[in-house]
Amino acid sequence: MRWIWIDKFIEFTPRTSATAVKNVSLAEEHLHDLYPDFPIMPHSLIVEGMAQTAGILVGEARNFSEKVILAKIGRATFHRLVRPGDTLYYFARISQLNEAGASIEGVVRAGPDSSSPLVAEIELMFSHIDKNLAGAAFPEHNFVFTDQFRDLLKTYRSGAEIPL
Amino acid sequence: MPMSRDEIYAKVQGVLVDALGVDAEEVTPKATLREDLGAESIDFLDIVFRLEKAFTVDPAKPFKIPRGELFPDDLPALMNDERYVNDGKITPEGLAELKKRMPFSDFTEFDKNPSMETASSLLTVDTVVNYMQSKIGR
Q1: How many other CB atoms are there within 10 angstroms of residue B41's CB atom?
Q2: Predicted ipTM?
Q3: Is A134 close to B74, i.e. CB distance below 8 A?
Q4: B85 Cβ partners below 8 Å, 6+ apart?
Q5: Which of A1, A106, A132, A158 is the most buried (most CB within 10 A)?
Q6: What pTM was computed for the model?
Q7: How confident is the model at residue A162 (pLDDT cuts 50, 70, 90)?
């Protein structure tokens, strides 16, 4: 299994906001782990979906030159359960951004509009680790933004249908 | 618009409650951010972000806190310098350097026994309020 919890971007405004979509499928193993015979999407993985949406937004703001890690979940409030067949829309907006990191405000809805059912409100903080952990040694290469994550953005930007 | 110390204090208190998950009653002027309120290293960046947001009046002119101005971020490197710290004790040069970098802290108690162990007591709720007052107080 690949550790990627969003399927595609549908909006991306550099240094400002991003929206990603996640289709929740009954075929996904993790839906069945919490309650027997009552598959739901775990809240922790909804937070991870927001962290990936926002993390790519924060990374792109510095052209992926920083190692951006999720440093703090300021708030995560859940309003409804997510079931197989639902489509999650992750709306992430940068609240603050500087050389040390960024904070974001996120909203998750079960639909594309501001009137769509509210799933969660999530505030996250990201740290540029090379700037904040003085003295600690990290690998030179950017292990945060693997090709898997960058491809998501590339696919959004190319936008075109792939011909058969 | 300049604010009174009480107005600044109320806002700082709200910021610390949100950033550190503490109760408002715990946020007293002399409370230390690390020991009393449980702040960890990453919380200091969170506090800076929240202060910037809370004290921005006009979004077109966001209030910004220059890096290291409120919470000096090169203290660990400084404290590894033997001119400033010798045998766990802060030297007179080290003390002078600390005071230069932390002009918003109250050194009255610290001066009596300046040691590394008690250095984090220099960052209190009042330190943040003093800083904000220097920026926007009347």
Answers
A1: 14
A2: 0.82
A3: yes
A4: B79, B91, B94, B116
A5: A106
A6: 0.87
A7: low
Range of the domain at B60: 1-67+125-138
CB neighbour burial string for A111-135, b if at least 16 within 10 angstroms, e if fewer: eeeeeeebbbebbbbbbbbebbeee
pLDDT digits (tens, 9 = 90+) for B70-112: 998 777 777 788 888 888 788 889 889 889 989 999 999 888 8
> Does B108 lie in the same domain as B85?
yes
Q: What DSSP string runs through B74-104?
A: -HHHHHT-TTTEETTEEPHHHHHHHHHH-TT
Q: Which residues pair with A103 in a beta bridge?
A: A96, A125
B44 neighbourhood in chain A, CB within 8 Å: none
Nearest-neighbour CA in chain B from A158: distance (Å): 33
A18-32 per-position pLDDT tens digit: 999 999 999 999 999
Task: Report how many domains make up chain B.
Answer: 2
**A32: which 2 tokens?**
């069945």
CATH superfamily assigned to domain A8-134 = Hotdog Thioesterase (3.10.129.10)
